[in-house]
UniProtKB/TrEMBL annotation, chain A:
Membrane-spanning intervals of the chain: 31-48, 54-73, 80-98, 104-123, 130-148, 179-198, 219-245, 265-290, 302-325
Recorded name of the encoding gene: livM
Gene Ontology MF: a single term: branched-chain amino acid transmembrane transporter activity
A Pfam family that the UniProt record links to this protein: BPD_transp_2
Chief location bin: membrane
The protein, known as: Branched-chain amino acid ABC transporter permease
Keywords: Cell membrane, Membrane, Plasmid, Transmembrane, Transmembrane helix
Gene Ontology, cellular component aspect: plasma membrane
Localisation: Cell membrane
Topology term for the membrane: Multi-pass membrane protein
UniProtKB/TrEMBL annotation, chain B:
MF (Gene Ontology): ATP binding; ATP hydrolysis activity
Keyword Ribonucleoprotein carried by entry: no
Keywords, sorted A to Z: ATP-binding, Nucleotide-binding, Transport
PANTHER family on file: ABC TRANSPORTER ATP-BINDING PROTEIN, CONSERVED COMPONENT OF ABC TRANSPORTER FOR NATURAL AMINO ACIDS-RELATED
Record's protein name: ABC transporter ATP-binding protein
Domain ABC transporter as annotated: residue spans: 6-247
A Pfam family per the record: ABC_tran
InterPro entries: AAA+_ATPase, ABC_AA/LPS_Transport, ABC_transporter-like_ATP-bd, ABC_transporter-like_CS, BCA_ABC_TP_C, P-loop_NTPase
Signal peptide: none
GO cellular component terms given for this protein: plasma membrane
This protein's record includes keyword Iron: no
Organism lineage string: Bacteria, Pseudomonadati, Pseudomonadota, Alphaproteobacteria, Hyphomicrobiales
Function per UniProt: Involved in beta-(1-->2)glucan export. Transmembrane domains (TMD) form a pore in the inner membrane and the ATP-binding domain (NBD) is responsible for energy generation.
Length: 339, 251
């Protein structure tokens, strides 16, 4: 076969070129997830508190996916942004204003600002050094939160703040119905934003940086600035997740900053699949529900089961469960097309 | 002179006591086809790294369209119109051909910080991509992942990336490296089709490509310019025959 033939071919339909992009398309896994979420609202009222936890974790996993999956920033300290968002929202509700939507913005901005500052440090390095740096920053912030009792309440956590009804109408109830819908709406908003982001020119540039940052520089792109922007955005989204958590549980404890949480979110992404947005949904749902059920069955050895799940997931679906579901969907659709 | 695009004056680079580039001068005019040849270790790669900014010179200056870029970062030089291809393909392996080229188009259009407006719905980007895919005859493999592509085709994508930047000066670092012999003729044809107003520096060992392409040749030896001239002058030069051509084969 002639590899370097130069006869120009004519009239390529532009539609084909547009379709050659691996942009995020809404697939079967998205449809399933949203259907499940709405189904859960109407028929699984008793599980709304668990559902809210799932949604909060999905938002956090989405933010981590933007950093790791799309941009190659290896963070094992995303709980820091979650925790800072949570503390910021709680302190804001306690001292300034109990209105929840403003609280979300405050949580997001606080975490985003912290992401910007630490990003200046973290993004100078890559690989293992980067992982260690994010862990170290997490450890420092956790220590500060534990020690600075007058602000954070130390190990007792921060509680006793009121959250006003959403938009002045929908107050948070004891059973978590409002909380579930509230967090679901925020998730839908964050998901829409993330989707616009990853399909934008900036989103592709990030994937380019992940693949080959040197080459991206030699295309004239200021790589450091672009990475700092996505790291700050990712941190802000993690902060929003933390803020929701603070608002719906009425308590912020130091474990919201812990390494354990950072690790768990990474596991969710591994299970669900990285660099594809839906991975966060699938991983978050599987992880939280599985942990909850496993802990209910055996409160002492449930981590053992979680480890087993992770090993199975990595062994049989190294790309995560998401692609697997979409392949199944594609297979079913193909069968339908061919009679 | 007005139509000088790239001018190198007294460029010198030493690592400690070892001088790898010694007092190199040359200029490129609009549309120049300049070949840089010399035996291994002559300092070709160092010179390219100095021009692109990967290395900082010990002394001397580099001017691009009259602007002194000696101290500019590599990425700034690229955005001012100095592009290169790499000897070893340097692409984005987990992305498709069209996405790879699109990254260069995005960089060239300065929309790399646009956070919204899907990339594959931007009309100008698509038109430019269509053009580039046609030029390099890559339309058929537009949706292939780079990692699934044959070596020769990756070479084409590498060239497409460089041209998508709409450079004023293009440095081709051994474009035929690793290509099967029968494809180097096709490469020559492709090189002939490069835009007429683009100044090109090519570094190449394949003398057939060099003499077929260049209108001016600089011969480097031991870090300095041995001689410069037209292909026929170089062919006739006894010194060149001695250090370089004589080693390989007679033309």
């Amino acid at each position: 076969m002639a590899v370097l033939k130069v006869t120009p071919s004519k009239d390529t339909p532009k539609r084909d070129i547009a379709a050659s992009f691996g942009s995020h398309r809404l697939g079967l896994s998205d449809a399933l997830v949203w259907a499940l979420a709405i189904f859960a609202y109407f028929f699984l009222g008793a599980y709304h508190q668990l559902g809210t936890q799932v949604i909060i974790m999905i938002i956090l996993a989405l933010s981590l996916d933007l950093a790791i999956g799309y941009s190659g920033i290896e963070s094992l300290g995303h709980a820091v942004f979650f925790g800072i968002g949570a503390y910021a929202a709680a302190l804001f509700a306690l001292n300034v204003l109990s209105e929840p939507l403003t609280g979300l913005v405050v949580g997001g901005l606080a975490a985003g600002a912290f992401g910007f500052v630490t990003g200046l440090l973290v993004l100078r390095v890559r690989g293992l050094t980067q992982v260690i740096l994010t862990i170290a920053i997490g450890a420092v912030v956790l220590q500060v939160a534990t020690t600075w009792k007058s602000v954070t309440g130390g190990d007792d956590g921060l509680a006793g703040y009121q959250v006003a009804p959403i938009l002045g109408r929908y107050s948070f109830d004891l059973y978590g119905h409002t909380a579930y819908l509230y967090s679901l709406c925020v998730l839908a908003f964050v998901f829409a934003l993330a989707r616009i982001l990853v399909n934008s020119p900036f989103g592709y540039v990030l994937r380019g940086i992940r693949d080959n940052d040197q080459r991206m520089r030699m295309l004239g792109v200021p790589v450091a600035a672009r990475l700092l922007l996505i790291y700050s955005i990712s941190a802000a989204i993690a902060g929003v997740a933390g803020a929701i958590s603070a608002q719906v549980t009425g308590l912020v404890a130091t474990d919201s900053l812990s390494f354990l949480l950072s690790g768990n979110v990474l596991i969710m992404l591994l299970i669900g699949g990285m660099g594809r947005l839906t991975g966060a949904f699938i991983g978050g749902i599987i992880f939280v529900i599985f942990s909850d059920r496993a802990a209910a069955i055996d409160p002492f050895n449930w981590l053992f089961m979680l480890g087993g799940l992770l090993i199975l997931a990595v062994r049989f679906t190294p790309q995560g469960v998401g692609p697997w579901i979409d392949r199944m969907g594609g297979y079913l659709l193909d069968r339908r097309r061919k009679p | 002179m007005n139509d000088t695009v790239l001018e190198i004056v007294g460029l010198h680079k030493s690592f400690g006591a070892l001088a790898v580039t010694r007092n190199i001068n040359f200029r490129l005019e609009i549309g120049a086809r300049h070949a840089l040849i010399g035996p291994n270790g002559a300092g070709k790669t160092t010179l390219v790294n100095l021009i692109t900014g990967a290395l900082a010179p010990s002394s001397g200056s580099i001017r691009l369209e009259g602007r002194d870029i000696t101290r500019y970062s590599p990425q700034r030089r690229v955005s001012l119109g100095l592009a290169r291809t790499f000897q070893i393909n340097s692409l984005f392996p987990s992305m498709t051909v069209v996405e790879n080229i699109a990254l260069a188009v995005v960089a060239n259009m300065h929309i790399d910080a646009k956070l919204w407006g899907a990339l594959n719905r931007r009309k100008q980007v698509l038109i430019e991509l269509e053009r580039l895919l046609d030029v390099f005859n890559l339309s058929g493999s537009a949706c292939q992942l780079i990692s699934n592509l044959a070596y020769g085709q990756r070479r084409l994508v590498e060239l497409a990336l460089a041209l998508a930047l709409k450079p004023k000066v293009l440095i081709l670092d051994e474009p035929a490296a690793g290509l099967p012999k029968e494809d180097s003729g096709k490469l020559s044809e492709l090189l002939r089709r490069l835009p007429a107003d683009l100044a090109v520096i090519v570094i190449e060992h394949d003398m057939q490509i060099v003499f077929g392409f260049a209108d001016r040749i600089t011969v480097l030896a031991e870090g300095s310019v041995l001689t410069q001239g037209t292909p026929s002058e170089i062919r006739a030069d006894a010194k060149v025959r001695e250090v370089y051509l004589g080693q390989a084969r007679n033309d």
